[in-house]
Amino acid sequence: xxxxxxxxxxxxxxxxxxxxxxxxxxxxxxxxxxxxxxxxxxxxxxxxxxxxxxxxxxxxxxxxxxxxxxxxxxxxxxxxxxxxxxxxxxxxxxxxxxxxxxxxxxxxxxxxxxxxxxxxxxxxxxxxxxxxxxxxxxxxxxxxxxxxxxxxxxxxxxxxxxxxxxxxxxxxxxxxxxxxxxxxxxxxxxxxxxxxxxxxxxxxxxxxxxxxxxxxxxxxxxxxxxxxxxxxxxxxxxxxxxxxxxxxxxxxxxxxxxxxxxxxxxxxxxxxxxxxxxxxxxxxxxxxxxxxxxxxxxxxxxxxxxxxxxxxxxxxxxxxxxxxxxxxxxxxxxxxxxxxxxxxxxxxxxxxxxxxxxxxxxxxxxxxxxxxxxxxxxxxxxxxxxxxxxxxxxxxxxxxxxxxxxxxxxxxxxxxxxxxxxxxxxxxxxxxxxxxxxxxxxxxxxxxxxxxxxxxxxxxxxxxxxxxxx
Length: 470
Ligand code: C2O
Ligand code: CU
Ligand code: CU
Description:
The chain has 5 helices and 30 strands. The chain has about 475 residues and is mostly beta strands. The strands form 6 sheets. A 6-stranded mixed beta sheet has the order 11-10-13-18-15-16.
């Protein structure tokens, strides 16, 4: 492991104290306030089979200092953190105790879109149970993914009521000793729009058009949790923007964010950032190095609650010996030039009849891709298993659309046609601009989805069906 350029994150003065073992780290992290809600879910583990019991139910919960009547996975908002390793079989025994149908989508996982795997065509009715089972490939990128419902027309509503949980795939990143030993903190950002009594408010007209935005922005279901860091030590953050429409830009006072994973998984090299943007649905993993004077430092989510921090990094008393950080992480090969380039023009149609008390759907507002709103009975795009394609999302509209594709991760392609050596599953088509991504359709034939991750846009039609054929 090379150490170039890392000295600046390592304190130069003497640091004393025991180096904590991984076990100790994990224990102290779990005991901290950050994971007080949405604890890790204990798996029943037999060999490579990791089995979880998951229930979605409606309940009253404390959220951001208020009471809200929310939708929770296993009783918490956000849901518990679920961990698997590349090569594991993930089995989820799911029970729907909600008053409406729902399902599970394993956002970002390279998994079959069919059968009882990551099949968003499945529906689980109220009171029903279903077993989801996914073989996580042994070469699956390690990274932070997530689980949320995927019911066309109701996705924004269900996610914005709280149904979201991080899913961490262990692999290459954990094998890097400095990273594997760092204590971990998961930060899930969600916004809520509750009425005076605590019931979620459904957006009307323009607010559905823009995507629902809640004034109550929470981290792990609370406000401003503490992220403990030992002087000289590292902390590894799993960041998830589980808001249905809001974009956040994260800035940490006095500390660069050292990104080790993008939405699709581990990066090939460490990236030092002053700020990190997360579109709706996006994740990242960053390291923070405890090189500042002991104290408290604000992690601000610009776009969140004005002026209030999303979390606070707080130095603990006992220092640890500083560790240098690795520059090289997990190799990522860039995809070869594409067999085919496709264009997707993002559009919106605003029809007459918008007005007070009418929802966007009632007024006939639709969001479209290549002029068409989603139709579950239509295949929009057919590709060949094994092919590499470039998809360009062209956005003539006045607002950004974060575009997401299921089943296979992609790489961003720049203006000269070069792919970025990093996996992602969300790419933002900026207002009046375009974004191009490259992907290879590997392993899994079947029908799957691509859509805008502003979930009201997805619900209002900005989604298409991709069929991967052999
Ligand atoms: Cu996170 Cu199809 O979505
Ligand atoms: Cu997804
Ligand atoms: Cu959109």
